[in-house]
Amino acid sequence: MTFAVTSVSKVYGATTALSSVTLDLRPGEIVGLIGTNGAGKSTLIKILSGATAPSSGTLSYEGRPLAFGSPLDAQAAGVQTVHQNIDDGVVFGASVADNLTLDTLTGGGWFRTRARVRAAASAVAPKLGLPLDAPVESLPASARQQIIIARALSRRARLLILDEPTSTLSEVEAGALAARVREAAAAGVSVLYVSHRLSEIEALCDRVVVLRDGELVATFAAPLDRAAIVAAMLGSAADAPARRAAIAREAGAGAGRDVLVAGGVRALPGGHAFGFRVRAGEVLGVTGLVGAGKTELLEQLGGARPLVSGELSLDGAPYRPKDPRDAIAAGVAFAPEERAAQAIVPGWSVRAHVTLPWLRRHTRSGLLARRSESAAARHVIDLFGVRGPGQEAPIEALSGGNQQKVVVGRWLAGEPRLLVLDEPFRGVDLAARADIGRVIRERARESAVIVASSDPQELYDLADRVLVLHEGDLMDELPIADATPDRLTALMSGTEMGAAAAAAIEPGGRE
How many other CB atoms are found less than 10 A from the CB of residue 272? Predict the structure, then answer.
């Protein structure tokens, strides 16, 4: 009773999201699926759950071909999926009991009576302890996720797909979920478990498969070798000692005053305090696996998230932004990780996106000055080589790489003192990456730059120093000349701790 994925590929235009992936999901087995952002995990889940069709290749169960035209087709075949986005799995405006019994009450008449719904809900989740009559939107995210997982496990699943199921759960809740997953596997259910938490994968999974750049590159059987798994996720990043030595020399010659000094800060609430500094004339890289705390740390610097602890100073003055507007006013520009959700306004023109953070500079007598806006947009387009139908076109008319150039480029138009970029190369091709990297290095001659990336290769080509995070802790700070692939792999996986993991870099960063 094996689910088989055979030579499955998925192509979106010129982008190959999956390439000839072959995978067996056997009954009673918990298979971990891991990979960095953009590796193809979400695409594979969408294909298995019926949300999208493969461009080529086949799915089968017990040797019989499967063709899903919708998620309902997948559910009919026994595939139950718990997606990472919690609110996609519940119906707001409905009660907890209604959400627990969605599409499961059949027969016995056309009416879903309150008594039938409550009885069925109690059977689905007898130990949840949730108020069955409460509106589901009144519950915290962790409780809503428990509802989705309980509902999925209650159905007669042959294949259960869990996408980052513990992302909003406490340790106690995560432990209870692990027990339920093991029970499902013991009952003969095939489980595909997606998580960025390696400790979770190690404790739960019988086998782990690794996706990288759309390809299935490695399979590991328990007991798992964490360092080997991380190495497979990251790939054979080019170890370029000559390039790193050249960058180190440039950094030593070009680094100037301290622009940002952080002491006693935490990437995540449960992490240890640490300190670091960013100097004018250099690019500081921040790396770590998904969930290491990169985004959370950068959002604190950019005013998008309150400072967890500690103090920041900018050019020697206290700096504690209450929101992104505060950060911009202080000369800190922050480009977030999620371009589509956090940085783009659908329907707005390229010109409007370039000038959005700087409207006061383009205002004359209370009105926007189109000529000033157009000049700013033209500067960014020329600087980055943005290709598209022109600055008046909606941002959606540009390719992903060109959209990213606009998102990064608009901050440079303001000449910030500190430029903070979270995954600036996400979803862009090599040519766009080179264009963005070139401008970032040029900007670093005049101001300080922080770049977060889960791909060490991107930082080899760009950064002067690298902070390595693991589960919210600073594992080490390395000059780029010392950031070898083996060293980064050990630090990112948590199998090795550097000096920074034992004590803060700055005296103010000690706990």
Answer: 18
